[in-house]
Amino acid sequence: MCQIAKLKAMTILKNRVAVVTGAGGGIGRALCVELAGRGADIAAVDINDDALAETAQQVQALGVRCSVYNCDVSQPDRIYELATAINGDLGRVDALFNNAGITWAGKFTDQERASFDRVIDIDLHAVIHGCRAFLPKLEQADRSYVVNMSSMLGHFGVPNQAAYSTAKAGVRGFTEALWGEYNGTGLSVTGVYPGTIRTNIIAAAEFTDAREKDMVQGLMARFGMPPEKAARIIVNAMLAGKRQVIVGPDGKLLVGLKRFVPGLLHWLFAFGTRRARASLNA
Q1: 3 state DSSP class of 69
Q2: Helices 49-60 and 26-37, interaxial angle, to 10°?
Q3: Cβ(214)–Cβ(170) below 8 Å
Q4: Rounded to whole angstroms, how far apart are CA atoms 46 and 58?
Q5: Which of 69, 152, 166, 240 is the least crowded, having the fewest Cβ atoms under 10 Å away?
Q6: Quick one: CA dihedral 54, 55, 58, 63, positive or negative?
Q7: Vertex 138: Cα angle to 125 and 129 (nearest 5)
Q8: Which residues are part of the catalytic machinery?
Q9: pLDDT tens, 76-128?
Q10: Rounded to whole angstroms, what are the CA distances from 133 to 55, 111, 128, 148?
């Protein structure tokens, strides 16, 4: 019976269409490849044409279709145009992965308003507009999925990540509300809360202290989960109809601390931030 269940999980997405934002690398590209390996056709969305072309090459090598779309998801009108284009090109949408995301690191008062707003627009508002744009088509499928990418920081805020923590907490609340609205229907809603994953989000981020950026990148390279493994966990959780999935041992540990000893968790982050700043300035 277990083997039958595994076989069904590997074929349920065959000839379905999955939309993945932030598909040019990291978890987004890994999701495209994982879904393609299970037979899904892919609509890959990103703002980097070269990265999209590389994703498409990897997906098409698995024998499925991959349509690419250059879209800045910080612009709401572009998201609605994207939904129209994908519906017209592929005829159906069965799964939506709101994965695109950015971050910015530094003290809240050092971050300009435009920079803060851009993190919110991409990490939170694009998730909301993505769901609004694609849900009418998803509701027409016999079985469909929405997967919204939050973060372990969706469960707790940390110093120097005010915009990112705000956005990811918003994604968490929005996704839980959406899950409640569609629970018991043919549309499954899953919130994803990754811990440390080896992606380029830090490399692409602006830090007020370049030495801090180097330190974080080093930790990510050493302890981060490969995005391919994260993608497999996420797709399995989606197909199992899970309301949420925490990806990675660090995410599970920290979310557990938040639940049982929140004061200790926040003290550790505050203390760790002070120590790191002191060591960098020594």
Answers
A1: strand
A2: 20
A3: no
A4: 15
A5: 240
A6: negative
A7: 10
A8: 164
A9: 999 999 999 999 999 999 999 999 999 988 899 999 999 999 999 999 999 99
A10: 24, 31, 9, 14
